[in-house]
Every structure is written in structure tokens, then in C-alpha cells.
Amino acid sequence: MVLSARLVLLGSKGGPAIRPGGPWPTSSLLEIAGRTIVVDCGLGVTRGLTDAGVPLKALDLIVVTHLHSDHVLELGPLIHTAWTAGLAHGVRVFGPAGTRGYWQGFLQSMAFDVDIRIVDEGRPDLRRLVEVVEFSDGQVFSENGLTVSALRVDHPPVTDCFALRFDHAEGTIVFSSDTAYFPPLADFASGADILVHEAMLAAGVDRLVARTGNGAGLKEHLLASHTFAEQAGTIAEAAGVGRLVLHHLIPADDPEISQADWIAAARKNWPGALTIASDGLVVEFADDSSG
Ligand SMILES: [Zn+2]
Ligand SMILES: [Zn+2]
């Protein structure tokens, strides 16, 4: 295995809210097969990529797991900022049904600026630089030894929500996307080097709901459509992955919850290598140095 692949967790919290000094909504950078791939584009993705040392004009592939705002809100602004930073080659965006409509709407909202920069700064037409490919279950993409496949997961009321698997000689990584506990994910993630699984901590959910101010409705949504850290451990164990990364943390910024609480919850069902996400954290594919 060639060890040049790496994962950078750019934004690690679940849900769209941000708080002073707190973590940012979900986005990840995957460098594999010599490609720069962004998985999900929550608020802060552009700043996160820049802080990770990625030149924005190197943007290559973007994959969006579903159209909840904490995964897609900054998709347009990311591509537009890359364009103003000198992006001159085509970018492909893979997303569920509705992604094309999002992109068209974004372009429409920015038509004044896009048109004026083409004339005034001689930039290529942004509308022709971006190809949107809408995907569903099965193979999403296969090129030069890199294969991406998708599995529809259980995230009501969103039906088009997909886990992603990236296979390459450098390694295999699976992202759960947002999902309730979903046993078929274990087969989908079978043998992966890294499983990035969303996670919720029971102890923090009630306090989060009280703070957010949409009591019963929010709690019902969380319990029906997300996975507890213990259950993410069960999926990792059944899949036999090399490392479990807990990501899209709910809650992510409760001062009464520490990394030790996340570890203790996952450890109930997962004895292997474990990483708790934080913004900017780098995960190497064969890194077995941390516990
Ligand atoms: Zn989410
Ligand atoms: Zn979601």
C-alpha cells in the first residue's frame, strides 16, 4: 500500500448552528490517488481547505452526501471562491437529485458578479467549468484506479442520502453520511482502512435540545435519523475496519462533554483504532500511533 493518502476533517460538528469559538459544520478533504476531493460542503469548507494548505484552484472533485444545509450550504461559495482564486480547469460535482438545481440557483443568484468578472477580469465562464453529476445507489465514479460507490442510508425525512466508499490502491475509506443506525453499512464498509461515521452522544442530546430551543421536534429528528457513538462502534466492529473516526458530532460543543466521553461510548463496542473528529484534524491512512 502506498501511503500518500490522507483525510483532513475540516468541519466536524453535526447540524448547521455555529457558536463563538466552536467547531464548524461538516466537510472533509480526501487526498487519494493524487486527487483533491472534498466530501460535503458545510459552512466553513473554503476556510478549512485553505487552512489545510490546499490551493483552491487545485479543486478537482466534490461529492455531496445529501442536501441538508450542514452538508451543502457552502458548495457554491467554495467553487466561486476557487474560480476567483484562478481555477481554470473543470470541476465535477457529484450529488444526489437536486444538486443541479442548487447549482443553477447559485449561479443565478451570482449572475451579476460572474458576468462582470468574465468581462472585467478575463476569467473563463464559471458556468462552463462545472459539471454536476447526480448519483444514486451503486457506482458513482471510476477513473484511473479510483472507484467511488454509494449506498442509500436511513436519514428520514431525507430519502436521497448516501454513504460513500472510495476504493484505491492507496487505501479504502467509507463515509457514513448522516444516518440512523444502519446495519447494511457494515457490509458496505467491509475491510475499509478508515470508516468515518457520524455520531451522537446520548448524554448531550437533551442539553443540546434545551439550548437550541426547538425542543420536541429536534429531539425526535435526532433520534430517528442519527446514530449513537456506541452503535457506530458496532458498525465498525462488524465491518472489520482499520480505524473508526467519529465525525458529525452531536453535540460538538458542549463544555460538559469531553473527548473521553466519546471514546468511552465507542469503546463499548469497538476495541480498535479510534479517532474523535475535530476541525483541521489530519488522519493518515496507516497511522496506528494514536489510540
Ligand atoms: Zn448533518
Ligand atoms: Zn442530514
Task: Describe this structure as you would to a colleague.
This is Hydrolase. 32% of the residues lie in helices and 27% in strands. The chain has 291 residues and is of the alpha/beta class. The protein has one domain: 4-Layer Sandwich (Metallo-beta-lactamase, Chain A), CATH 3.60.15. The longest helix is centred in the middle third of the chain and has 11 residues, at 99-109. The radius of gyration is 18 Å and the shape is globular. The two termini are 22 Å apart. It binds zinc ion (2 copies).
Radius of gyration (CA) equals 18 Å
End-to-end Cα distance, whole Å, is: 22 Å
In this structure, how is the largest beta sheet organized?
A: 7 strands, mixed
Q: Looking at this structure, what is the CATH superfamily?
A: Ribonuclease Z/Hydroxyacylglutathione hydrolase-like
The count of helical stretches stands at 11
